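Continuing the batch. This is chain 6 of the set; chains 1 through 5 are on the previous pages. Same settings as before, nothing changed between runs. Recording input and output for traceability.
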Amino acid sequence: MITPDATISGSTGRCPWAKQSELLGAFHDHEWGEPVAEAGILFEYLVLHTFQLGFDFPVVLKRREGFRELLAGFDPDRLARWDEDDITEVLGNPRILRNRRKLEATVRNAQAWLQLRQAVGGDDGILPFFATYVGGQPVDGRRSAANPVPLSTPASTAMSQDLKRRGFVMTGPVTCYNILQTAGFVNDHWLTCPRHAECAALVR
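Output for chain 6:
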């Protein structure tokens, strides 16, 4: 996972974790915490954070384009039709994290995504549906060294329970909180970070 360094006090500029590498810095500066505008992007984050289980997020980010190419462009309609032969073929490619359980979970989650999409009236209903977990609009975490980022929250726990009930797998409270943060349903940039204000402005 992305692990903010809560021991750093008085920091200014970017969130501390964004300074760990150029890869994390770019992700922080251009994606993390920015409210998503398309359901497809949210599904991509769901896939990436599913593969993150057991790894630091940079391990997944380094393989992101491999995932995109080999996992049908993160298209849930295509992934939902995958069978064991498709999974076995992808398992032979070192450009992604080769884990059968996570690939099978991705297919199951794509199928669950299509069922959810139908239940909420199509792609236009997906983002409002996920926003209900945070009360309908992005939450400002007001993060700082004195108020560090948690691993999970009551909102992510509720999201986890609901998604599992709807057929999703590998969506525990920590994974769900990572998704909420990345997709901008929660603004967990430090108050001293320029991206905090930028992401907040996008909400308004």
